[in-house]
Amino acid sequence: MSYNCPVCGFEKLTFEPYDEKGLASYQICPCCGFEFGCDDFPEKEEAFEKWRLKWIEDGCVWFSRNPPPLDWNVQEQLKQLQNR
Questions:
Q1: How far is 54 from 70, CA to CA, in rounded Å?
Q2: Cα angle vertex 37, ends 36, 42, to 5°?
Q3: Residue 70 CB: number of other CB atoms within 10 A?
Q4: Measured CA angle at 36 (ends 31, 42), to 5 deg
Q5: What's the burial of 81, exposed, middle or buried (CB within 10 Å: 0-12/13-18/19+)?
Q6: Half-sphere exposure of residue 15, counting CA atoms within 13 Å on the CB side?
Q7: Which of 14, 39, 55, 73 is the most buried if burial means most Cβ atoms within 10 Å?
Q8: Per-residue pLDDT, 18
């Protein structure tokens, strides 16, 4: 099973960013580099938006040392995020 990043829309996170109690996974999104439970302080939604805007401004650079999936398309990913 995979999960979506609420920051960049990447659809292949290994763990859910937050559990049913709202506790963070401390996973780092390999796409945008956001760490759930660390970068979301003090207000999650505001932190998501700020991080997303900065990531887009910087050119949507893949964060992980590992290469992105072969089918990774940042434009489609961002479109899906807007549709949520």
A1: 24
A2: 110
A3: 5
A4: 125
A5: middle
A6: 14
A7: 55
A8: 97
Task: Let me know: does 17 contact 7? Beta carbons within 8 Å.
Answer: no
- Classified as helix, coil or strand, 38 is coil
Give the residue carrying structure tokens 């559990």.
19
State how far the alpha carbon of 55 is from the alpha carbons of 4, 20, 23, 44, 52, in Å.
16, 27, 24, 16, 5
Cβ atoms 64, 58 nearer than 8 A: no
**Residues 7 and 52: beta-carbon distance below 8 Å:** yes
Which residue(s) pair with 4 in the sheet?
none
- Tell me the pLDDT tens digit for each residue of 25-70: 999 999 999 999 999 988 999 999 999 999 999 999 999 999 999 9
